[in-house]
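Re: weekly structure request thread

Next one in the queue (180 aa):
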Amino acid sequence: FVFSSNSLANQSTHKIEILVNDKIITNYDIAQHFAISSILKNIQVTQENSEILYNKTVNELIDMKLQQAKIIDYDIKIENKNIEYYEDYFFQSRRLNKDKVNEIIINNNLDINVLKEIINTTIAWEQLTAGLFLRTISISDTEINELIKTDESLSPELAERILTNKQVQLKSDKYLRDLR
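Done, posted below.
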């Protein structure tokens, strides 16, 4: 990945683009998130997809600001002693090489703190929504058995965990849509 410095906003000119509950999103924020998101998702940016990716980045930033507000409201904190564990989980769950991603970000003069903000918000949001919705979810034996039929390597416990996580994610997505 190599990003043209012309395509990224100049850090010295932070033009306000969007306000989300009194939180500012600048052109610099959008450019940084655009580049880092493309790296994390392993997407090659082209003229054909750049506008779609830009709009998706803006929506993701709006969602992130809404998530951060709720994380603060519910006083969700990631303990410093667990940050390394959560970072590793973030990269492993996306099948990414942490060192390689960090190297690409540094080599392209991107802000590593933006990546850390993405990771911390993602992890804190997962903790918040699991706390809010986990007790409202029930998985039937039929659902577990159906999933095991599609992948016989799954244990019943793992199949239940996968299905639970999917339901929490669905409720989390709906909650975020409701916040908009």
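The beta strands are 16-20, 23-26. Residues 2-10 have pLDDT under 50 and may be disordered.
Next request, please.
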